[in-house]
Amino acid sequence: MNSIYVHTYTELGRTTLAKFYLNESLAMIGHIRLTSWYRIPFYRSAIVYYMHVHGYNAAAKLLKLYDEQVYLRARIDMMAENHLTWSRIDSARGNFAAAFEHYKAYKKLQDSIMLQTKTKEFARVQVEFETIRKAKDLKLRERDITLLHQQAQLQKAELKRVTTLRNLIIIGAVLLFLLLILGYNRYRLKQRTNRELQSKQGQINRQNASLKKLIREKDWLVKEIHHRVKNNLQIVVSLLNTQAAHMEEGSALTAIRDSRLRMQAIALLHQKLYQVENAGLIDMPCYINELVGNLRLGCDCMDDIRFHMEIAPVLLDVSQATPVGLLLNEAITNAIKYAFPEKGKGNIHVLLKQLPERMFLLSVADDGIGLPADFRTQRKKGSFGMSLIDTLTQQLDGSLELKNSSGLTLNITFREQWEEHSVLYNEDEDFVPGEYV
Questions:
Q1: Which parts pass through the membrane (predicted)?
Q2: How far apart are CA 430 and CA 312, in angstroms?
Q3: Which site in 21, 81, 142, 333 is 20 to 30 Å from 89, CA atoms measured?
Q4: What rounded mean pLDDT belongs to the chain?
């Protein structure tokens, strides 16, 4: 009864009740002899339960015991059922070779069972035939009529078989002919599609070649524009130099010199743009080093001030490189002019560092005299240099910080603005410190 409950509740999907009755069966089965018939229902229901809950290892252990009971009773039908169960267990456990062998054994036993059934049926028919034959011996006329009737049935069956075979051959020939037509049609369609694809590919190749030519012409025109802008700016710088040569010392001459340095910073940018392949990105280490070198030469401080450079190997878009260059120009010029009075010796540190989340830190620090006590009042009144620094910082969408300790440190933090230009920076590389001696 417990085995029936286990089997029934398992088939209904109520595994909790099935397990309860299975445990009761386990408590009883130990008191039954190993060769007892009453173990067979328990094994079958337990195997069904474990197969249902995917406990294939437990099902395999019980199936071995079940096999022993089956072989003791030489039940071929139960043997076949066990081989089919083994095939399902091995397939679930991934042992497909063993599963296939058990399945072959199952089919072999099924064939044997079918053969036995047919043999019994044949024997039964033969007995019936002998009985009929003996009865026909008593009734010769009925026998002759029966034989004639059987011959007619055989002829009718043979005629039907021949007709069916002929129809199958005709249908097969028609299907084969249709398949040939379909295959030929597919071949012609594929050939036409290939020709169309080749034609379109040729058009695409010609368009790509035209686009490449246009891109080369565009790059050449952009570089030529940068070259001409740089030359025009150099002319403006030359005019400013000429004008400064005919002026006496004063605020006007200072303004002309500052303007000349700003023009040189912008001209240097355009020079870098027409010298590289990518006309939209500036190599910041090369640009800043050359910019600082020009400032040192222009301010006549080569022997008094030492420059210390820590520039990260990055590329910036020209829209950000321009304000960065002008900011460096203003900050370094102010440090040269005001941090070291009476041409005293000193140091200026220039830093460009990449921060997390695509942020950058631009810093210019000196060890000079620092800011005057009334700097905040003067800044509110608005000097042109500080106004320009504030404006350029806003253009970068950055933040400006001034530290007046052991000299002046100007820190500007800003974010990379252009997603289409990637910053070529290797995080495994450290800064590339440099120094002008």
A1: 165-185
A2: 8
A3: 21
A4: 77
- In the chain, the N- to C-terminal Cα span, in Å, equals 102
Residue 203 lies in a domain: no
Closest CA relative to residue 348, chosen from 401, 402, 310: 310
Domain boundary among 79, 100, 121: 121
Quick one: pLDDT at residue 170? 94
Confirm if 48 and 41 have CB atoms less than 8 A apart: no
Q: How is 333-361 classified by DSSP, letter by letter?
A: HHIIIIISGGG--EEEEEEEEEETTTEEE
Q: Which domain holds residue 28?
A: 2-121
Question: Which residues are bridge partners to 307 per DSSP?
Answer: 348, 436
Tell me phi and psi for residue 110, to 5 degrees: -60, -40
Q: Specify the 3-state DSSP secondary structure of 434.
A: strand
Rounded CA gap, 101 and 209, in Å?
63
Instruction: Determine the length of the chain.
Output: 437
Distance CA 307, CA 434 (A): 8
* Overall pTM surpassing 0.70 (yes/no): no
Mean pLDDT computed over 187-210: 89
Cα(423)–Cα(314) distance, integer angstroms: 6
Total tally of structural domains belonging to the chain: 2
